[in-house]
Each structure stands twice: as structure tokens, then as C-alpha cells.
Design a protein that fits this description.
This protein has three domains: about 1-220, 3-Layer(aba) Sandwich (Rossmann fold), CATH 3.40.50; about 225-315, N-(1-d-carboxylethyl)-l-norvaline Dehydrogenase, domain 2 (Orthogonal Bundle), CATH 1.10.1040; about 315-445, 3-Layer(aba) Sandwich (Rossmann fold). The chain has helices at about 1-20, 35-45, 60-65, 75-85, 120-130, 150-160, 200-210, 220-250, 255-265, 290-295, 305-330, 355-365, 400-405, 420-425; strands at about 25-30, 50-55, 90, 100-105, 135-140, 170, 190-195, 215-220, 340, 370-375, 405-410, 430, 445. Helix 1 runs parallel beside helix 7 (about 200-210), helix 2 crosses helix 4 and helix 8 (about 220-250) runs parallel beside helix 11. Strands 3-2-1-4-5-6-7-8 form an eight-stranded mixed beta sheet, with helices on both faces. Helix 5 links the parallel strand 4 and strand 5. It starts with a helix and ends with a strand. It is built from 14 helices and 13 strands. Bound molecules: nicotinamide-adenine-dinucleotide. Nicotinamide-adenine-dinucleotide binds next to helix 5. It holds the Pfam family UDPG_MGDP_dh_C.
Length: about 450
């Protein structure tokens, strides 16, 4: 009889949550309102769910509550519309029981030893534990090594006395946001979801299917965690490969960009990747090392990852050497030259500067004695960063300003730059993005 009652209770809790998701009465809690959490909030609000957003950063909560956005590609109008639909932002974690789901979208950086820093995930979970209740679904979206969800989140939920898989639920569902990419939205990017148990998976899939066109279930949280790492390692390794190919091609007097364009005409078996001044962003330079660290526990060395990391992190030095050589042909040294770095966001058409190779370029040039300025239409003032410091504002580009620099270094090829004007007025351009197709005496590819 007791067994029957127990099974019945499980079914009731699960079914109640499924019903609430289906009839949109579920309250969606999102923890961490950054590049990942904010678009997700907008999508749930758009579909008609009440969203309760949690963040520890009071300034973000205040901005959102006032209908303002702090991310360039997310409009204030969209925040205002979400507020009208019931969205609330708060720093008060004691409101967690009001939510049916707690979707964690907090940072997963590396520490100074380039090892996983799970402190944001663990701090978030520790703040939530006192408020976890029966019927909660916890979903981790932060990129991390396989095992994090089961090894770190599960015991914390259990410490609250919850029977995970029966009276509360746990999934890992990686985020695939590509900021600034106009071809995809949160709704149209398929979403992978793995649960701690089949019941967890069923609820996770139901939740995401309510807002995303295609949800891809996998058999476990570990498979979902590994899927995200495979995707990003695939990019890091291939970018490392093409960066190495660029160096070889350059030595041989071949334009790597011409070669990539030609190779990309092959209709099968080739995927184009593009070289650059290094690897940037919060994901690709960092995530692979989450696997490297975890693989050591199993006695495995991740040699591809290490090699790609080495090649990619050496690229700024290679580009600076190109600047030095280009100035040298004009009888100038880096020391004392005025160098304008174009584009300091980590990729084109975004304002995100995390791990941007441009910052490494600026530091290396400054250390060598250059007088460094920058221009970036997406970053009007050089932001406060933990490890990098420049008291600079973006230079407005006009003919006289462009001509006043000994060297213009194209680091990030934003669409907003006037490439024809730059070509016309610059004394010397070092192009690390292959933007200038036609050779010219004052353009050097790097
Ligand atoms: N940015 C991307 O394009 C992208 C894409 C895919 C995956 N990811 C992954 O998603 C995760 C989040 O990345 P992001 O770019 O959104 O980071 P972000 O820094 O833009 O946002 C994280 C937010 O979490 C908040 N936060 C930090 N600690 C907290 C805590 N203890 N409780 C509540 N909130 C807290 C921060 O104040 C911030 O607003 C990372 O694991 C990242 O690797 C990011």
C-alpha cells in the first residue's frame, strides 16, 4: 500500500509540473541574466510564461527593472515587452520557491592555473539550496566538464532531502547562443537535453520544447555536457589548424584566404574555418580545458586540445611580428610608432570583449613601446577588465585621423568600418582577417 502511495506521489508531482509547463502556468526561474540567461528569458516571456530572473548583480537587476538592456544586441524594447508580460528581476533568492524551474546560466571561467573555476555554479547552487522544494526542475546550462551535474548539483539537491528523479528533477541542457548571428534565434537553435533519470529528461524536454523548435534528448547529463564540449573543441582545434596553415602559407607566399575560398567550393567533406589574430570569447578558448582537466582523472592527455591552445594563443605574437616587419620596411620601429588597433571585441559585430585577442595585441604593442589607440564602433570606452587596463576611448575615424597613424592593425573586422576609406587614407594596414582581397603596397596580411 505504501509502495502504491509512493508511486502515485511521484506521478502526481511529475504530472503537475508537466501540466504547468503545458498550460503555461509554470513560473520560469532563470539564474544569471547575462548573454545566455537574458535571451532565454525573452523567449519564455514571448511564449507567455511568467519569468522570474535572479542575479547577484544589483546594477543588472535595476537596469532590467527600468526596462534597460546592457547587451548591445538585446533591445530595451524587448526588455520592456517582457516586463509587460510579467517578467521580474531580483537579487532575492528566497523567491526561488515561486519558480517551478531554476535554469542556471552563470559563468564557468578558468582560474589562473587554467583549470575549471566552478565557483559561480557552486555559489549559485548553494544560494538556492535552502529554497529548493518538491516539484522543482533544476537545469544547468553553463558549459562544463562531464560529471558536473551529477557530481556537484545532485548531492546539493539531495542535501535538501529531495529525492531527485521523483519529487524534484535535474537536467543539463547546454546553451548554443551565437551572439550577433542574425540567422539563428533562441527558438531556432536546436537544444540538447540530458536528464539525471528518464523522468528528469522527460520534464526537461517538455520544458524546452515549449519554447524551442527542436529539442534533442540524450541519455544522460554527461552525454549532454560532453556534446557541448565536443562542439567547442571541434571549433578550437579547427581554428588552430587553419591558423597553423596560415603561417605555412605565408612562408610560401600563398594567401590562405584565397585557398580557403577555393577549398570551400568542395560540396562535401570540407568545412571552412577562418584564421585570425587569436581566439576570443567566453567559450572557445576556455571550454576545451574543462575536458583537459577532467580527462586527467581518467589518465588521458587531450593532445589535440593542448596543441590547438598553443597554436591559437601564439597568434597575437605572430601578428605583432608582422607589424614589426611591416614598420621595419618603412624604416620604423614599433617603439615610438603610433598604432591604431581596429576592432577590440572578440569577433565582428558584437560588443563582447571577453578573452579578445585584440587586447593581447594592444598590450604586446604597448609593452614594445608603441603609442596604442583603438577604434571600435561597438566599444566606445575601453571597459574595466580584471587583468587588462587601458584608459582609452574609441577613436573616431576620419581621413586625417586614419592618416596620422604609422600603422593601422585590423584585428576585428566589424561591418561598420569603412574599409575603402581606411585603404585610401592609411599609411600602412596590417590585416589579420583577410579583409583586403586585392594586394596593395601598403597592405600587409597577417
Ligand atoms: N556567451 C555566450 O555566447 C555563451 C554561449 C554558449 C554557452 N555559454 C555558457 O553559458 C554560461 C553563462 O555565460 P554568459 O555569457 O551568459 O555569462 P555572463 O557573464 O554574460 O552572465 C552571467 C550572469 O550570471 C550572474 N551571476 C554570477 N554569479 C551568480 C550567482 N552566484 N547567482 C546568480 N547570478 C550570478 C552574473 O552577474 C551575470 O549577469 C557560461 O558557462 C558560458 O560558457 C555562453
Amino acid at each position: 500500500m505504501a509502495g502504491f502511495y509512493f508511486v502515485g506521489t511521484i506521478i502526481v508531482i511529475k504530472q503537475q509540473l508537466l501540466n504547468r509547463i503545458a498550460d503555461k502556468s509554470a513560473v520560469i526561474g532563470i539564474v544569471g541574466l547575462g548573454y545566455v540567461g537574458l535571451p532565454l528569458m525573452l523567449r519564455f516571456a514571448e511564449v507567455g510564461y511568467k519569468v522570474l530572473g535572479f542575479d547577484i548583480d544589483q546594477s543588472k537587476v535595476d537596469a532590467l527593472t527600468a526596462g534597460k538592456s546592457y547587451i548591445e544586441h538585446i533591445s530595451a524594447d524587448s526588455i520592456a515587452t517582457a516586463l509587460e508580460r510579467g517578467f521580474e528581476a531580483t537579487t532575492d533568492f528566497s523567491r526561488a520557491p515561486e519558480a517551478d524551474t531554476l535554469i542556471l546560466c552563470v559563468p564557468t571561467p578558468l582560474n589562473k592555473y587554467r583549470e575549471p573555476d566552478l565557483s559561480f555554479v557552486l555559489d549559485t547552487m548553494d544560494s538556492l539550496v535552502p529554497y529548493l522544494r518538491e516539484g522543482h526542475l533544476v537545469s544547468l546550462e553553463s558549459t562544463t566538464y562531464p560529471g558536473t551535474t551529477d557530481e556537484e548539483l545532485l548531492p546539493r539537491m539531495q542535501s535538501r532531502g529531495l529525492n531527485v528523479g521523483t519529487d524534484a528533477f535535474l537536467v543539463f541542457s547546454p546553451e548554443r547562443e551565437d551572439p550577433g548571428n542574425p540567422n539563428f534565434t533562441t527558438r531556432t537553435i536546436p537544444k540538447v537535453c540530458g536528464g539525471y533519470s528518464p523522468a528528469c529528461q522527460e520534464i526537461g524536454v517538455a520544458l524546452y520544447s515549449a519554447v524551442i523548435d527542436k529539442v534533442v534528448p540524450v541519455s544522460s547529463t554527461r552525454a549532454a555536457e560532453m556534446t557541448k564540449l565536443l562542439e567547442n573543441i571541434h571549433r578550437a582545434v579547427n581554428i588552430g589548424l587553419v591558423n597553423e596553415m596560415k603561417i605555412v602559407a605565408d612562408k610560401m607566399g600563398i594567401d590562405i584566404h584565397e585557398v580557403i575560398r577555393a577549398a570551400a567550393t568542395k560540396p562535401f567533406g570540407f568545412v571552412p574555418y577562418y584564421p585570425g589574430p587569436g581566439l576570443g570569447g567566453h567559450c572557445i578558448p576556455i571550454d576545451p580545458f574543462y575536458l583537459t582537466w577532467k580527462a586527467r582523472e581518467y589518465g588521458v592527455n587531450t593532445r589535440f586540445i593542448e596543441l590547438a591552445g598553443e597554436v591559437n594563443s601564439n597568434m597575437p605574437d605572430w601578428v605583432v611580428a608582422k607589424v614589426a616587419a611591416a614598420l621595419n620596411t618603412r624604416k620604423k620601429a614599433i617603439n615610438g610608432s603610433r598604432v591604431l588597433v581596429l576592432g577590440i571585441a572578440y569577433k565582428k559585430n558584437v560588443d563582447d570583449m571577453r578573452e579578445s585577442p585584440s587586447v593581447f595585441l594592444m598590450e604586446k604593442l604597448r609593452d614594445l613601446g608603441a603609442e596604442v589607440s583603438y577604434s571600435d564602433p561597438h566599444v566606445p570606452v575601453f571597459p574595466k577588465m580584471r587583468e587588462h587596463h587601458f584608459e582609452l576611448s574609441s577613436v573616431t575615424l576620419d581621413a586625417a585621423t586614419i592618416a596620422s597613424y604609422d600603422c593601422v592593425l585590423l584585428a576585428t573586422d566589424h561591418d561598420k568600418f569603412d574599409y575603402a576609406a581606411l585603404k585610401e587614407h592609411a599609411q600602412l594596414i596590417v590585416d589579420s582577417r583577410g579583409k583586403y582581397l586585392e594586394p596593395a603596397d601598403h597592405i600587409v596580411k597577417a
